[in-house]
Design goal:
The complex is a heterodimer of chains A (about 260) and B (about 270). With about 260 residues, chain A is of the alpha/beta class. Chain A folds into two domains: about 20-100 and about 175-265, Rossmann fold (3-Layer(aba) Sandwich); about 110-175, no CATH class. Chain A is built from nine helices and ten strands. In chain A, the strands form two sheets. Chain A has a six-stranded mixed sheet with strand order 6-7-8-3-9-10, with helices on both faces. A four-stranded antiparallel sheet of chain A has the order 2-1-4-5. In chain A, strand 9 and strand 10 form a beta hairpin. In chain A, helix 4 crosses helix 5, helix 4 packs parallel to helix 6 and helix 8 packs across helix 9. The N and C termini of chain A lie far apart (about 45 Å). Chain B has one domain. Chain B has helices spanning about 5-25, 25-45, 65-95, 95-100, 105-135, 140-170, 175-190, 195-205, 205-215, 215-225, 235-255, 260-265. With about 270 residues, chain B is mainly α. The model of chain B has no long low-confidence stretch (mean pLDDT about 85). Helices cover about 80% and strands about 0% of the residues of chain B. The two termini of chain B are about 30 Å apart. Classes of the chains: A alpha/beta (about 260), B mainly alpha (about 270).
Chain lengths: ~260, ~270
């Protein structure tokens, strides 16, 4: 039996947390996917430990959105496996999806409804009771300092606030794995930083495994984990420092340019 | 996931659809004006031209307005079914469809919830229309207004399932305008909504055959009979059969492993 462990984290780091941390939040193995002739993903394998902020870095068209669609089972993978805390997404979709919170690239809130109405809808999709939904909505809005906007229509909010509400919506059912697909596109620098700070805190405080897809290299900071995707293949995987070292580059930006041919963004 | 989770989910989806509907007053008014124009103007004009002989379920000669009312009720549901599928194509382009589909509940169930939500809205529209028609002097027997409810649920589900099926097959919103033209108008005109089938048979036996297999004809007849407290078994079976067929195909279309979304790539 071949022991193809993708985890290059030192063993003691894995054992410091509770025992559950030994099960990866997300484990993708040998994942390929094609649309007709075009191969969107080609033998992708990586894992995300719980409590880690992992950046899925790749240029537009690298396969990030396809990967997200497969992990969230918008359509099934035909080769390879995707496991969320051990549950195979294709075989036990309900179990896997209950543990995932997703923020999609496109806006998903209803502009004509209020923040609270939108959040209640999200809670209902996960089968939450009215009382539980109310408590969770209050808690998540308070954490974002947006409690006073609960009764406002989404249309009245700024782009950054809408994104934060979407993150709150994705967190209502207490997911253990968060997936965010280019969530800062179209936001100003202040809102971008605010969202990044909030999300990094979620990883630290709640121990959530988190995959943040982006093509913006400046969203990566030292200490983050990086999975670099290029033309459907994983070209680098590890901490920022490891990836830079392995690529023989001084910084992660240089490594990104070197491995994917991305111009300085 | 237990039955309680399923019910809460259904409740949430229906509540959202109802809220959206209430917020889009333009949509509500448009949905009402359309059949009312037919009733107040078209029917009034044609009253003198078209005579309707005594055919079941009517026991006396009826005015043309009375004859086309069930057809207009079905038209409301047809438009509503197409409109909710239009909103699904829109949702898919915008991303809110993804929110629905990543729910841990099974996908077929989510689609059925969506279908019921659309039907609930259409029934609301129908009763407001019937109330206005009543003031206009088009009165069905009192029990008919109760008896028509199960018929409306069945026909609404069938027409909604057709919309769902179309939304699973259509990739972009632009294609949808064509479908409205190629689905709504032919279905409406090649049916018993505006004229009794025996009249059509007199002018064109071929058209009669087409009308006779048009699911919309059976939805109209189901509603027409129910409005007078009668069951039309043929129409009921047709509508039920079409519902099963359309819904089955729609669920297939949205299946993550086999459907069109899976084959064509990311929605939106």
């Amino acid at each position: 039996m071949s022991s193809r462990s993708e985890i290059d984290v030192p063993a003691e780091e894995l054992l410091t947390g509770d025992t559950a941390s030994a099960v990866p939040a997300l484990a993708v193995e040998g994942l390929s996917h094609s649309f007709g002739e075009r191969k969107a993903l080609d033998g992708v394998s990586f894992t995300i430990p719980p409590g880690a902020f992992t950046v899925l870095l790749g240029q537009n068209g690298a396969g990030k959105t396809t990967l997200f669609s497969l992990v969230t089972r918008l359509y099934n993978n035909r080769s390879g496996t995707i496991r969320v805390y051990g549950s195979d997404v294709a075989r036990r979709p309900s179990e896997a999806l209950a543990r995932i919170g997703v923020v999609f690239q496109q806006r998903t809130l209803d502009l004509d409804l209020t923040v609270a109405q939108n959040l209640r809808y999200h809670a209902a999709l996960h089968g939450m009771s009215g009382g539980e939904a109310r408590r969770r909505i209050e808690a998540e809005l308070a954490r974002l300092a947006l409690s006073d906007r609960a009764g406002d229509k989404v249309r009245q909010l700024s782009g950054g606030q809408i994104r934060r509400i979407e993150i709150a919506a994705a967190l209502l059912h207490r997911p253990r794995l968060m997936l965010l697909d280019e969530p800062t596109v179209g936001l100003d620098i202040g809102s971008r930083q605010g969202i990044l700070d909030h999300v990094r805190r979620l990883c630290r405080e709640d121990g959530i495994g988190l995959l943040w897809a982006t093509h913006l290299i400046d969203e990566v900071i030292p200490g983050d984990r990086v999975v670099m995707l290029h033309k459907g293949r994983v070209v680098a995987d590890g901490t920022v420092e490891d990836v830079a070292r392995a690529a023989g580059a001084a910084t992660i930006r240089d490594a990104f340019t070197k491995l994917t041919g991305a111009g300085a963004s | 996931m237990t039955a309680v989770h399923y019910l809460r989910c259904l409740n949430g989806i229906v509540a959202r659809e109802a809220l959206r509907f209430l917020h889009q007053r333009g949509r509500f008014i448009a949905a009402l004006v359309r059949p009312l124009v037919w009733l107040f103007i078209f029917a009034a004009g044609f009253r003198a031209v078209l005579g309707v002989s005594i055919i079941p379920p009517y026991e006396t000669y009826v005015l043309y307005e009375v004859y086309i009312t069930p057809g207009l009720v079905a038209m409301i549901q047809l438009f509503n079914g197409m409109q909710s599928s239009l909103s699904m194509v829109y949702d898919r382009e915008m991303g809110s469809m993804k929110t629905l589909l990543v729910s841990p509940l099974p996908r077929w169930y989510l689609l059925v919830c969506k279908l019921f939500a659309g039907v609930a809205v259409s029934i609301l529209q129908v009763y407001v229309f019937l109330a206005i028609a009543w003031f206009w002097g088009i009165e069905a027997p009192a029990y008919g207004y109760v008896a028509v409810l199960p018929a409306l649920i069945l026909s609404g589900l069938m027409l909604g399932a057709l919309g769902l099926l179309l939304s699973s097959a259509i990739k972009q919103l632009e294609n949808f305008a064509g479908v409205m033209n190629f689905v709504i108008f032919p279905m409406f005109f090649a049916s018993s909504a505006l004229y009794p089938l025996w009249r059509i048979n007199e002018s064109s036996p071929l058209l009669y055959q087409i009308c006779a297999v048009n699911p919309f004809t059976h939805a109209v007849e189901l509603i027409r009979f129910a409005l007078y407290g009668q069951v039309n078994p043929t129409a009921s079976l047709w509508v039920l059969g079409c519902l099963v067929l359309f819904l089955g195909l729609a669920i297939y279309g949205y299946d993550p492993a086999r459907g069109l979304i899976a084959r064509r790539g990311a929605p939106g």
